[in-house]
Structures are given as C-alpha cells and as structure tokens.
Write a structure and sequence with these properties.
single chain, alpha/beta, TIM Barrel
C-alpha cells in the first residue's frame, strides 16, 4: 500500500511540474523605451501592473468549470486561488502607488487610483490605442500576463496537495514579497555544476561585478566537486558568495521518505567544507516540501527560502534571452523579490549579463546575500 501511494503521489507531482503551456515570456524589444532612469522604470512598471491587473480581473469572471478548463485540471482548490488573487491585488495596489511617485517626471500610465476600487476600475478599462506609442507592446504583453497568471493560478489550484512557491506553510518559510521596493535578490539552484562549469563562471562574474548571490547546493554535486578538486578549491569557488542547501539530490522533498536525511547530510557537508559561506537556508527543489515540516526546520535552525520571480531557465522552450526577458518583465510587475535561476544551466551566462545591462541605470538595488 505504501509503495502504491508513493507512486501515485509521484505521478501527481510530475503532472504538476509539467505545465500544459510553455512558460510565459515577453519580448522586451516591443517596449519602445530603454530603462535608463528610475522614472522610465516606473513608466514600464505602471504599464505591466495595469496589464496584469486587467488579466487578473478578467480571470475572476470565470466560473469553476471554465477555470478548470482554462487551467487544464479536473479539480481545483478555489480557496487557495481566492487567497492568491487577494494577495496579488494587494501587492498590485501597493506597487502601483509606488510606481506613481514619479508621475511628475513622466505621466505615462498615470491614472487616478486612491484604493482598491479605483485600481480595479482602471484595470477593467485598461487598453492601448492603435495609434499609441506603446502599441507594439500591447498584444505581446496581454498574452504574457494571461499565460503568467495561468501559471500562478494553476499552482494555487493544486496547492497544498502539490506544494510550490505559490503559498507559505508557516513562519519558517519566506519569499521575496516582504522586501523593499526596487530591491532584488539573486539565487541559484541545483549546483555546483561539473568542473569546469557554469558555477565557476558565475561566481567569478559576480565577484567582478562586486555582487553576491545565494547558491543552493546539492549534496551529491558538492561531494563530487570535493572529491575531484578538494576543500580549498570548493572554498575558492564560493568566495564572497552565500551557500544554502537544496538536499542531497534534486528531487521533490514532499514525498521522499529520506527527505530529512537529505537535508541533514547536505547541511553537514556544507558546514564542514565551506563554513564561512554557509547560510541556514533550504531551497526545496520544485518548491515542493511537506506541509508538516515546519517543526523539523525550526529544530534545525533552517529557514525555507522560496522565491517569487522564476527565470524558468530549465525550460527547453525558452532561450537565455527569453528567460532574462521574463525576469525583467516580472521585476517591473512585482518591483522587488527573490529571483531564481539555476547555475547548472549555461543560459545564465547570457541571461544574467543581459539582465544587469538592461537594468543598470534604472535605480534598482541588489540585496547582499547575507541579508536574505
């Protein structure tokens, strides 16, 4: 019976990971202005907020049957979906108010919003005229926000049977929603890469940029690097960076019988080999963890570190630049947060420099990894 339940759960998890549509991305060349000032960042931010708010408002007109069909699911958790929508509306309102602070410098997409009712009203009638300066962006943006919203609604619909970053289980968990405006944190999963590899390039690149990130390592991958190159090389690899843990293998920790041992073994290895870089953070692969795991993490002094901006760089359907463009669009929408890349993906060699160049003059801040 236990084996049957295990395989049943794994089939459900695999179905959740494989979303029915390709990940959403938005060609940023359709936006006619470069983000060369904080005010121009705000213009683009206001536009993305209104476009997403419009998509969110439209989704609320769907009844349960229509929503199931749209998400490609037979059963959905309406309560979690409703909670997600409420949180999204609250964040959209806060973000729009922040983005409007520069309206005296550029009034594009500045509308009267003094609360939730007026935001919903503006979202309902939001459209781009055919002769607008921004018309080339209008349809690609509409498609992006609908697809991105569906990604999020689908995760909420499956929660908590299939856990993900869409919802927190308790105080031992965090994501990027509480960060300050215009502040972002870089995180990288599933490393270190094989030697030599993307992790080596990435940590060197970050040091040259005087930046730091949190790397969530797999115990087996770290052990391979340790066996091949030794302790000093592993310490040099992560110099100036932070290292959290992601378990011994990149697999779901929600239905794995040895999930606790996976975390304990990896934590012990990292503390022993690179103690000066260790931070007490666990990043669950796929965002999947047990609903009752809070006590374990508290006892171990670990925080579950989730994210709210996903690069989707493991998707074969997205190029490196498309992954970076997705991240930038979500940075404009959410205005702060934890960005999740994978340092085992070669795409990051192109995606990260593109992202940093595109935002270099936009007044953003990058959180020091030790603050995460």
């Amino acid at each position: 019976m236990r084996i049957a339940l295990f395989f049943s759960a794994m089939l459900v998890c695999l179905g959740a990971v494989a979303a029915p549509n390709e990940p959403a991305t938005l060609d940023r060349s359709t936006w006619p202005e470069q983000l060369i000032s904080p005010a121009l960042f705000d213009v683009a931010s206001r536009a993305e907020i209104l476009a997403f708010a419009h998509a969110l408002l439209v989704s609320e007109t769907l009844d349960e049957s229509a929503l199931k069909q749209r998400l490609g699911l037979k059963t959905i958790n309406l309560d979690t979906i409703d909670n997600l929508r409420k949180r999204m509306w609250q964040r959209l309102l806060a973000n729009y108010n922040l983005a409007q602070q520069s309206c005296d410098q550029d009034a594009s997409f500045c509308y009267y919003v003094d609360g939730m009712d007026s935001l919903r009203e503006q979202a309902g009638k939001f459209e781009i005229a055919d002769d607008s300066f921004y018309v080339a962006w209008a349809e690609p943006s509409r498609e992006f926000h609908q697809r991105y919203l569906d990604e999020q609604l689908r995760k909420a619909a499956l929660f908590p049977q299939i856990s993900s970053e869409i919802e927190l289980f308790g105080e031992q968990e965090s994501n990027g929603e509480a960060m300050h405006d215009r502040l972002f944190s870089l995180t990288f999963d599933s490393g270190p890469s094989q030697l030599p590899g993307t992790t080596d390039w990435l940590t060197d690149y970050l040091r040259k940029q005087s930046m730091s990130a949190t790397f969530f390592v797999l115990g087996n991958s770290a052990q391979v690097r340790l066996d091949k190159s030794g302790t000093q090389a592993l310490q040099a690899l992560y110099k100036g960076q932070c290292v959290g843990v992601q378990g011994w293998e990149y697999r779901s920790h929600s239905h794995w019988q040895d999930w606790q041992d996976s975390i304990l073994r990896t934590t012990a290895l990292v503390k022993q080999v690179i103690p000066n870089n260790y931070v007490a953070l666990f990043r669950p692969p796929y965002g999947q963890r047990r609903a009752d795991s809070g006590g374990f993490f508290q006892a171990q002094g670990l925080q579950v570190s989730l994210w709210d901006i996903d690069a989707q760089d493991m998707s074969a359907s997205l190029s490196a630049e498309q992954s970076a463009q997705r991240v930038l669009s979500l940075m404009l929408l959410w205005r702060h947060g934890v960005i999740a890349f994978h340092d085992t993906q070669d795409k990051v060699r192109t995606a990260l420099p593109w992202l940093l160049k595109a935002t270099a003059q936009s007044g953003l801040g990058w959180e020091d990894c030790e603050v995460l």
